[in-house]
Amino acid sequence: MTNRITSLFGIKYPVISGGMVWCSGWRLASAVSNAGGLGLIGAGSMYPDILREHIQKCKTATNNPFGVNVPLMYPDIETIMNIIIEEGVKIVFTSAGNPKLWTKKLQENGIKVAHVVSSSKFALKCEEAGVDAVVAEGFEAGGHNGREETSTMVLIPQVRKVISIPLISAGGIGTGAGMLAAFSLGAEGIQMGTRFALTQESSASQEFKDLCINLKEGDTMLSLKKLSPTRLIKNEFYNAVQIAEDRGASVEEMRELLGRGRSKKGIFEGNLIDGELEIGQVSSLIDSLPTVSELMNSVISEYNEKVNELITQKPLF
What we know:
11 strands, eight-stranded parallel beta sheet, TIM Barrel, 2 domains, alpha/beta, three-stranded antiparallel beta sheet
């Protein structure tokens, strides 16, 4: 399979792992890259020295391309970007901020840049900023979401209409059939977060993984809308957030309720009661924890099967 995404990043399959906090360390990133996709290290949950360590370990664990996902709201963003440049990382996915701030600097250092958006308006701004690719993420996704709450199936064709650069689809994709659906709407690659979070190589706690593979439809909801809309599993922390939001709590009160390190407590440490448990809607379709290699083989095989099924179908009219 060769297209603009595989050529841009030098990968075999146009499949990219999400740069998820507390899930996307060097083990997951290198496993995805070794399986033919593009693995991303999630810098959002790492102090600068920890990020450098993960980059160095990833370089040792794979000879294939990998990248780093950087939320631009990161408090020590300049240090993070300098580490990425110093360590020779060749691919950066940015999110949660203005792509104009770092795209040119990164590209001047030989780095390909993709930026994550939730609307066609911001996709167009990304193209104007000169990014190499856009990731359009629907609100089915886990973790932080756009305020527009546009679904992937609506978002992808809208973004495809307004930009000419390579387009990656994210949000609610966890299968080969989902990959084909995204491609039919105009995407040239997919980014899977939840599906890769629920693999053997993910650094999420076993308690979190076991919970997620037993989730049913409707067990995740968008929450924390006064701060930054975030898809969460319903637990006691989620319930506390809903009670606060229903009574009209202020932004300051919501920040105090969230506190610090709550996603680490939930995802990484396995506190399923008080932790902030971020995962996507597609989790309700997942009931196993494969290795990354097994997952990649399954996704590509299913994609090819579905393509062949469509080829053999007769037109409806």
